[in-house]
Amino acid sequence: MPTTPATTEAREPGTDAHEPAAATLPDLLDAQVRADPDAVAVRHGPAGITRRELARRARTLAAHLRARGTGPDDRVGLFAEPSAALVVGAWGILYASAAYLPLAPDYPDERLRYMATDAGLRIVVAQDDLVERLSDLVGPGTSIVPLSAWHDASPPDVPRHGPRPRDLAYVIYTSGSTGRPKGVMIEHRSIVSQLRWLRDTYRLDEAVILQKTPMSFDAAQWEILAPACGGTVVAGTPGLHRDPEAIIETIRRHGVTALQCVPTLLRALVDTDRLGACTTLRQIFTGGEALSTTLAADVLRAHPGTLVNLYGPTECTINSSAFTVDPATLDHAQQSVSIGRPVAGLRYVIVDTDDVPVTGDTVGELLIGGIQLARGYLHRPALTAQRFVPDPATGERLYRTGDLAARHHDGTVRFVGRVDNQVKLRGFRVELDEVRLAVEAHQWVRHAGMLVRDDRRTGHPHLLAFVELNPREAALMDQGRQEAHHRSKESRLQVRAQLSHVGVRTPEELAGRAALALPGAEPTEEQVRRVFARKTYRFYEGPPVTRADLLALLRPAAHGDLPARPLDQLDLATFGEILRYLGQFVSDERLLPKYGYASPGALNATQLYLEIHQLWGQPSGYYYHHPLTHELFLIGPATPQPEPTVRLHLVGRRRAIEPVYRNNIREVLEIETGHLVGLLEQVLPGYGLTVTAADHAPPTIRHLDCADDDLYLGSFTLTPYTPPPPDEIDVYVQVHPDRGVDLPPGQYLHRDGDLVRVDDALVLRQHVIAINQQVYDRAAIGISMVSTTPTRWRRYVDLGRALQRLSMNDLDFGFMSSGYSSDTGHDLPSAHRLRGILRRHGLPDGPSYFAVGGRVSPAQVAGRGMKEDVVHMKGPAELIRDDLAGRLPDYMLPNKVVIVDRMPLTANGKTDLTALAARVADDPGPQRPFVAPRTDLERRIARLWKEAVRQDEVSVHDDFFACGGNSLIAVALINRLNRVFGAALPMQVIFDSPTVAQLARRIAQRDQVSRSRLVPLARTREGRSVYCWPGLGGYPMNLRLLAGTVGRPFHGVQAYGVNPGEEPYRTISRMAAEDIRAIRERQPRGPYTLWGYSFGTRVAVEAAYQLEQAGEQVDQLVLIAPGSPRVRVSAGPATDGPASFASPTYLAVLCSVFAGTVSGPVIEECLATVVDEETFTGFVRRHFPALDLPLVRRITRVVARTYGLRHTEAELARRPVRAPVTVLRTRGDQESFLDTAVARRNLSPVVVDLAADHYAVLREPGVHQVVAALPARSRRRPVRPHVSITHLPIALTDEQHNRLVTAVTRAMTRAFGCDEDAVSIALEAVLEE
To answer: Bigger pLDDT: 437 or 454?
Structure first.
């Protein structure tokens, strides 16, 4: 191996007059005794041992060992906890000319037993109370010498000649590549050189050093041996190295000036926030692991002393190089701190894979030469020859470190990683330590460990990053009980909870209760605008915030001189419109529903009950407001009141909140209550109303038939409008630096219409939960609200009210809640921080709520997408990986980040990768094999999928979200799928069908459905589907509003002839037969729910008859507007005449199919200008340009073919129907076929007359008249069966699996009369019964 002139030359460390140049450790201690015998050498507790006393005790112990035949190069075990006795024991063995072998009591017994046997120990010096344990670890031929042997008062008889420089001083066992530790033999000359360097470079002769490092760790030796160079050792207590707080106390109590620890422990010391209190501490030495630049900067901020980064393999005697960190020149572009230059007496050589020295900053393996090299490995000559190699140019031994390093331009050396820690990933060689340092450079990460494991599906290696979060920088929700959901959103627990509406009362809970359908189920455009404007904003794209903006925002709302509305003037339509603000809002651009008020976790676990008296003809009672169906369900009677009354009772559903929150449940529910009430306070003045707090009456919940663990949250009364009283809330505004605000950064109190500066201190980034910290970085301001009300139940409610009102501003301010206090000791960090600021100034302190915000753009306010809601899809694990994607090339990016409670550590305080590997082995993850796309459709979908999630390969069974997908990516992917395949998949499809295979089936089914004529108009999963025939022309799109109001799955039965290439049928009987065939393809078995509108009632009756004749059950037949609308034209009766453009009646009816009316200017123009089909289609195109012209022609021909079709009385007489029939007649219609005596006899219908006319019944508010007139079971179906199956053997074939699922689904639909979509089945394989 050629040497290189670019290496640092070896040089001897300095000596002084008291010690010979070629000295041993006893020589050094004796010199210190001669120099100052009464100086303290060791402190332990209140007592101290002088240098003279240390030497005396050591010589006494040495005499005992000599008497037992101990001599040079003999290994003597040392088994003791950190203490003064441990220091005496080490020196006693050294004075006996032997080498001590540290046996740390916290090592596992098996390892200790192996070390004692491998080293051939004949004698072990042991702490007195550990002798019994040691007896079980060593063989019968090993003598145990208690450390109390130095108490022997007889004068020590120790020969004057001691050890020689090339004799062994100690043997340290380090981990071996074979899994067995190996003993490293260190000679006196090597450790003497190291101690002299420490003394000369860092003035160890003046230092007070804390000895707390486990003694089996090589770095502990200079702590133990520090008296040899004049230092004072403070002996720690057992386990001290694991207790950062105790270390701080020990430093302060004993005036420690020098401390060494591994970076892992150093991070823990910084996190105590008390390192700066160690005023005597001058030097901090760290080594054993790479020191990240981030940690170095944090240490120097916490304690501005001297920070020294040490590097050195055990084989080179503790430290082989050092680097003093200068905060002014710390290079944050580098992930780790330099390891510096070689110490005195050593030199570094960096070579390539051919053992040729490299030049410049090329990375290569580091070799070390010089006086500190170990003799070799005990009893391992072959390994010694392999690792300690001669330099052919000089003959000097060089030690192969196995470490990769490179030189900086200034001659210092950078540690890169381990030669044996390189792996091949994605065709590139990756150094795992480089990735680990990049992960640990993340602000949230305290410690990281990297593992490579083969993906069980593909066989490809996957890189896993395990991280322990730094709680000071990465606060999680539910402080103190950090459930897995708050670390990673991989499970999609919160999103699934939102989509399943766990807060809403179930159909089973409401079955059999009287229901009142509220008007206004379809939101107005103003409601949609206001609800979507009130978002949780996470981006602030508006103009800068000004002081004037803030004052305008905080100014109490001025509603002007609004008229007050007495409650007896509150009609049901207005009340329904008000309550619609509390319902769910949807958008094609969103994956999740939207509400008008903020809800922690968007779970909407707070539910509204209404106590109603003397209004709308309803009995006095307690009613449940269903936010999804827009109905009131009578829960139970209430004691009647003489005056019209509406009282709101708020109840929190624990079962809805607990999947996401385990702490602070009452607090978050009360905050949500405040947001809901705050929304009403903003909306109601426009109706001449408001809400005021009612008496707090927890017993009210007994009237509401709630679950036992539900929480009563408060009550409010709806009253005529009066100006609101002043809030009992203190509002603080914090101005963030460098965000363009025209106020100096700091904390301001809003008082008397002005902003009064309080403090420079801010609630900082690390004080908001981790997933919101990026939002904090974008925010210009923070708002802190502190409740001052003496009314206990109102404290958190008022906080929610305050933020809701601020959020519903018209100044384009947007906010995101970012923290709150707790009554149960689980404050989020923002509350801790704010409390400290307030108490410093003697300001009132109480429950608090914190939000960040800024100005938003008009486009954001108007937006109805998911941009602001991505937090629902990503937790800290996913966000860390996203950040790493911006720092690391793709081939180095971990496939997955896994957050652990605590990183497993070795006894030496380093990350225990073996334990991490065992954890992965215990949790093998998904067992499903990799299945490549099998069809052209799957391959096309997989290609779009891979582009969306940036994944190289995808199995058809991979879960979209487990592959890194989120809500924004989901929206983009579904939009692309719809565009590429001409589909109309809803956004929520990604939850029901999150794999390539399932999406392919959905798209294939879409093709089948499109050829079918069943048009899905409402996709809710509750209840059995309604099949409804539309009016004349057979086009079901005008049924959409009705479908959305019913609250059940709803399919329009499109007429044959509307699709291209179809020819309309000529009889109602044939129509019904073919339609039944399409329905039974979708739902093979009854019961069936059939509806018909206008002409469609005729087909519905025929279909019901044919189904019953086939042995099927029809559970409901609803016939809406069966009579024809009265057409008043100048020529002829309304029902006479052929389907001819020459017939005014026919032409008016035909035009009404598109216009939705049989009178008015459009009809008049049609009658005046249309003469044939061509002029009619031209007329429709002019008035309804959105309609497709070929479609208009096809519908026109369907109308022409079916216009005259109707049942004769004789046909009706032959068509009895057993199903319950409800006829809803509309105002102004002619009599229908159902008004005959034959129909009444054969159908026995319940007839209801509606106030809406023939066409208004399909529009607002007419659709609500339809729903209100229906039996409750037509609106909802409570049964959604779930079947759980445990099966043996372990695996089912695909065929077995499909047969089982099909059979169980068929059984459930027959038993419960539900759709297949309502059935859920769980299959679990077990190993044994």
So the answer is: 437
b/e per residue 193-226 (b: at least 16 CB within 10 A)? bbbbbbbbbbbbbebbbbbbbbbbbbbbbbbbbb
* Two domains, one topology: 502-534+559-720 and 729-855: yes
- Classify residue 1130 by burial, with Cβ atoms within 10 Å: 0-12, 13-18, 19+: exposed
CA dihedral 1120, 1123, 1129, 1132 (to 10 degrees): 160
Contact 969, 944 (CB under 8 A): no
CATH topology of domain 1282-1325: Macrophage Migration Inhibitory Factor (3.30.429)
DSSP-assigned letters across all residues of 946-1015: HHHHT-S---TT--TTTTT--HHHHHHHHHHHHHHHT----TTHHHH--SHHHHHHHHHHHHHHHHS-EE
CATH ID of 502-534+559-720, from 1.20.1260.10, 3.30.70.890, 3.40.50.10320, 3.40.109.10: 3.40.109.10
Q: Rounded to whole angstroms, how far apart are CA atoms 471 and 474?
A: 5
Query: CA–CA separation, 468 vs 645, rounded Å?
Result: 56
Place of tokens 């010391």: 269
Q: Could you tell me the pTM of the whole model? A: 0.55
- List the one residue out of 794, 791, 799 whose CA is nearest residue 818: 799
CA distance readout (Å), 795 to 800, 819, 849: 9, 15, 10
Q: What CATH number labels 930-1008?
A: 1.10.1200.10
Q: Which residues contact residue 889 at a Cβ distance below 8 angstroms, ignoring those fewer than 6 apart?
A: none
d(CA 627, CA 36): 85
Dihedral (CA of 954, 958, 963, 969) sign: positive
Q: DSSP secondary structure string, 465-527?
A: EEEEE-TTT-B-SSTT---HHHH--TT-HHHHHHHHTTTSPPHHHHTT--EEEPS--SPPHHH
CATH entry 3.40.50.12780 includes domain 25-324: yes
165 close to 187: Cβ distance less than 8 angstroms = yes
Higher pLDDT, 993 or 89: 89
CB-based contact 351:365 (threshold 8 Å): yes
pLDDT tens per residue across span 567-625: 999 999 999 999 999 998 877 676 667 889 988 656 778 999 999 999 999 999 999 99
Q: Which residues pair with 78 in a beta bridge?
A: 102, 125
SS3 406: strand
**Model confidence over 860-891: pLDDT tens digits?**
998 887 666 654 456 778 788 877 876 776 66
3-state SS class at 686: helix
Cα–Cα distances in angstroms (integers) from residue 1252 to residues 888, 1134, 1137, in the given order: 65, 20, 27
CATH code that applies to domain 426-488+875-927: 3.30.300.30
Question: Side-chain half-sphere of 824: how many Cα atoms within 13 Å?
Answer: 11
729-855 topology per CATH: NADH Oxidase (3.40.109)
Whether residue 1175 is predicted with pLDDT greater than 80 in this model: the reply is yes
Angle 813-818-822 (CA atoms, 0-180°, nearest 5)? 135
pLDDT in tens, 292-325: 888 899 999 999 899 999 999 999 999 999 999 9
**Gap between the Cα atoms of 663 and 674, Å rounded:** 19
Distance (Å, rounded) from C-alpha 74 to C-alpha 122? 9
Do 955 and 997 contact (CB within 8 A), yes or no?
Answer: no
Q: Cα dist. 62→93, 150, 346 in Å?
A: 6, 8, 32
Q: How far apart are CA 1152 and CA 1255, in angstroms?
A: 9
Neighbours of 1086 (CB within 10 A): 21
- The CA distance from 266 to 292, in Å, is 11
Please tell me which of 37-41, 393-397, 1162-1166 the model is most confident about, judged by mean pLDDT. 37-41
Nearest one of 836, 830, 844, 815 to 751, comparing CA atoms = 844
The residue extents of the domains of the chain are 25-324, 426-488+875-927, 502-534+559-720, 729-855, 930-1008, 1282-1325
The one-letter amino acid code at 177 reads S
